[in-house]
Amino acid sequence: MKLKSFIKNFNEKRRIAFLKKETLKHDYHFEDVSIISSDCIGGILYHDLGAKFLSPTINVSFKGSGFYCFVLNLKHYINSDISIVMNDVSIIGKIEGNSLLENCPDIYVNFVHYSTIEEARDSWNSRKARINYNKIRVISTERMLTQEKLNLFNAITYKKVMIYGNVVDNINVPNGKEFVPSKFITKRNYRGKLLVFKGIGKKRHFDDLKFDFLSFLQ
Description:
Layout: H1 2-26, E1 34-37, H2 41-49, E2 60-62, H3 66-72, H4 74-78, E3 83-86, E4 91-95, E5 107-111, H5 117-128, E6 136-145, H6 147-155, E7 159-167, E8 179-181, H7 213-216
Parallel strand pairs: 1-6, 6-7, 7-8
Antiparallel strand pairs: 2-5, 3-4, 4-5
Protein name: DUF1919 domain-containing protein
Organism: bioreactor metagenome
């Protein structure tokens, strides 16, 4: 266990130092970007870049197509209260939709790595207040891409990218920089392994994707 912790800390220090050099080299700025992500990748990017969390989607995931509805009606969901309950295995939040708005159902948020309802609620509410609506970047990770999710993603007007694995019913995924295929996340036991380090070093598995996250966040 001590060895695992040592390697993790070693990797994180190397990665942070590497990204600082890249930031200076390209004159990148990450202090004002709000990363709205469907899973933990947003929080990982913030952590690695040493940037403040300007988004509530840190260590959370969404049920079904809820993430895309959340983004499409972002201000409605952000300005609405979230009710949170805790069961034996997870902490779940619910935000009510608005039938007068298109693609605005009730959505459910799964809080990952939180210990209490209070911690989840406080983190969500404090971080949602920091959103910079002038610089939003949307990152979606889909292990099973359906036509419904693709249609909703295409309707998003913010700068966006989708990392996808399996495609259901042979739907036609457009070519373009907004769509990044990844065989890695097609595995049944994926469970966020795209985010972990590749052995000893400064690279995470998502660095193997043919996508420049640093320039995307500008």
